[in-house]
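ok new one. same drill as before - structure tokens go in, u give me an amino acid for every spot. 148 of them this time. try not to just spam alanines like last time pls lmao
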């Protein structure tokens, strides 16, 4: 009789642990989906913000605003791509398992923003120091001082 209760209790605990494990795995999947969705939304916000900053910078300096807005987004994503290629060459063990997705996303966003910001600061300082070229029609200016 004792072994029957022991077996029943063991079976009940096993079933309870199995259901608990299933719930934990489901929660883990949902949490991963929430994190991935958050990164997608963060990416959409960053695309807008990066494009807007380059657009305003180009507009203030009489450059092509849409061209530089697109250039800013290309700089951001190309720096992330270069970081991924560099890590794959230097540290291939990071890509063997799929356990480092969040770390790689955060690192890619950080590197992309750093490169984007450095190029933004370079363009801003370069365009501030440029003198505006004003065309003067010298032929029409000849003799104006003598006239009056």
């Amino acid at each position: 009789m004792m072994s029957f209760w022991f077996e029943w209790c063991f079976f009940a605990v096993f079933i309870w642990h199995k259901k608990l494990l299933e719930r934990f795995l489901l929660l883990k999947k949902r949490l991963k989906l929430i994190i991935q969705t958050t990164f997608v939304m963060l990416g959409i916000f960053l695309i807008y913000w990066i494009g807007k900053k380059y657009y305003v910078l180009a507009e203030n300096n009489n450059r092509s605003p849409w061209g530089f807005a697109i250039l800013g987004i290309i700089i951001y994503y190309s720096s992330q791509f270069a970081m991924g290629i560099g890590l794959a060459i230097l540290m291939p063990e990071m890509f063997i398992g799929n356990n480092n997705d969040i770390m790689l996303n955060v690192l890619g966003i950080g590197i992309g923003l750093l490169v984007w910001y450095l190029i933004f600061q370079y363009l801003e300082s370069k365009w501030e120091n440029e003198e505006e070229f004003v065309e003067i029609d010298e032929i029409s200016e000849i003799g104006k001082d003598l006239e009056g």
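The radius of gyration is 30 Å. and btw The helical segments are 2-60, 65-90, 101-129, 138-141, 144-147.
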